[in-house]
Specification:
It is built from one helix and seven strands; from the N terminus they run αβββββββ. The protein is mostly beta strands. Strand 5 and strand 6 form a beta hairpin. 10% of the residues lie in helices and 32% in strands. Strands 3-2-5-6 form a four-stranded antiparallel beta sheet, with no helix packed on it. Strands 4-1-7 form a three-stranded mixed beta sheet, with no helix packed on it.
């Protein structure tokens, strides 16, 4: 056991290497512009004052009154999501014959969404709808009727 310990220590010490006569390599210094007042990085961007760097999109949702005559539940989720859960859905709300008016936010403009209206009565098939960002509209809206 002592021999194994001595051999291990000797191996570790020789594995680390020695000082030798090699000269250390110094990494090149970062180069700076000759003009210290010149903006760098994102500060160098020229952006129109009306551009706010926001990518979120507000969507006004209107589910028509009397679309459903029984109690139901609506999920609005990412269209390509395999599972409907809190991570992929933007709206999860009860629905009745009075319809629904609300606004929600999607994270970017090329988002494609699906709405599924599920009935408490399982003998009624769910209703499915799709929505896609419309570049021609300044205010995004979705009417489900």
């Amino acid at each position: 056991m002592k021999q194994l310990l001595v051999l291990s220590i000797a191996y570790i010490l020789t594995g680390c290497g020695g000082g030798g006569d090699s000269t250390p390599v110094t990494p090149p210094a970062a180069t700076a512009n000759s003009d210290d007042n010149e903006a760098q990085g994102t500060a160098a961007l020229n952006v129109a004052p009306e551009f706010d760097f926001k990518t979120d999109v507000n969507v006004a949702l209107n589910v028509a009154a009397n679309l459903v005559n029984e109690r139901a539940f609506i999920n609005i989720c990412q269209a390509d999501a395999l599972l409907i859960n809190a991570d992929t859905c933007f709206v999860r709300a009860p629905l009745d014959s009075e319809g629904l008016d609300l606004s929600f936010v999607v994270p970017h403009q090329d988002q494609k969404l699906k709405a599924q209206i599920w009935f408490y009565d399982t003998s009624i098939a769910p209703l499915n709808y799709e929505w896609r960002f419309d570049e021609s509209q300044s205010q995004q809206s979705w009417l489900i009727n």
